[in-house]
Amino acid sequence: MITRENYEEYIMMYVDGELQPAQEEALHNFLDQNPELKNDLHAYELTKLTPDNAITFKGNESLLKTSGKRVIAHPGWAKYGIAAGIAAIFFITIFRFITTNKNEVATKDQVVSVPHNNVEKRVQETQAPKPVESVTIAKKDTMITASISYPTRGNLEAKRDVKHKETTSAPTEHNIPDLAAIVINKIEATSLNQLTSKPETLAPSSIQVPAYTVAVNTEQKKTFWDKLPIDDLKKQQLNNISADIKNGLDEKVLSVKIEKRKLILSF
Amino acid sequence: MDVKEYNACVQEWADPLLRFACKCTGQVSDAHDVVQNGFEVLWGKRKDVVYSKAKAFLFQVVYRQSIDNYRKRVKVTFTEMPEQSITPANPDLKKILDRALAQLDEQARALVLLKDYEGYTYEEIGVITDLSESQVKVYLHRARKTLKDYLVSVENII
After folding, report:
1. How many CB atoms are located within 10 Å of the residue B17 CB?
2. Are B90 and B74 within one domain?
3. Residue ranges of chain B with pLDDT lower than 50?
4. Do B60 and B101 have their domain in common?
5. Interface contact B152-A43, CB threshold 8 A
6. Which of A9, A46, A47 to mutate to test the interface with B (most CBs of B within 10 A)?
7. Which contacts of A137-146 are long-range, i.e. CB under 8 A and separated by 24 or more positions?
8. Residue A229 pLDDT > 50, yes or no?
9. Measured between CB atoms, which of B10, B140, B144 is closest to A60?
10. What phi, psi does B131 have (nearest 5°)?
């Protein structure tokens, strides 16, 4: 019930928008019955504030967030990591290349001394004044000759010792390659001294070194098949196939079994 | 609340909060700091505040901060609102209302602002200001009567 004692409360609730529709109707009826109080309604309506849209938060972009995570590490670390990886691969490649070249040089040196199986080695020593001492390594049809000038007595004695060992001990397939290496090494070691010293005059003598067959068990040059991770039997079989192909297949049948499937090639 | 919702709150409520804080503190610079602090608090508690309650949360933080700032100052001067003589030739109602608002205490002023600027109900204002609904109603009506009396007196002068 709206009365003259409580009408202001209803007017303020009306201004605040808190009255129910029925209460609003009751208020309007009361004011119609008391028109002198309508000025109060007008005055309270004037107290209602309106926002000042001219006031704005300038720079609210600074309040925006892009992500909840903070970047602690250097943001460009990935680029440095990739660069370091490329550099590491580059240097490793160069290192391996250099190492491979050195190995090849060393292998060539070894091949000169003992290049193949079943090498027939013949060492001939001639006496002074013949200024050339020759060491002949014969491989069936080909011969490799190393010449050393100005033989000396010590050199010859060393050779004799070596030859004595060669003659006293039966040449076997195991010790003969070592023996040949010793002879060649001694000749090479003494040859440097001979270059600076005058040759001694020795009575002509002839030391005949019997030729013998040397079965050299040196490391053969590895074939492609030897590098494969398969057992030795299969490697040997593949080597045989390669040899046959290399020597020419003549009326042969090549059968290759690949995972339960057999491939037969006739030539 | 995720980052996207938080940014939406910034875009939507930064200006209303600044207007509210300006009227509460009486200084734009203070209001700016208060609003910025309010969003920092919201960001820190974004996992606990859902988007639908973010506006009330922001107004609550800004209201408390504004009241604290106001009470720390010995005297409030509305420097951003230069005083103008109320003469019959310049009867600017808005200016008169600003002066009338300055007559209210900080709490009553905040209640009027929340009601008129944002249209909150008595209950919602009570949540923001930690008052009961009946307290909000009483304080707000008292403030409204003060404003009306000031306007009537000015009109009488005019």
Report:
1. 27
2. no
3. 74, 80-90, 158
4. no
5. yes
6. A47
7. A137/A113, A137/A180, A138/A211, A139/A115, A144/A112, A146/A184, A146/A187
8. yes
9. B10
10. -120, 160
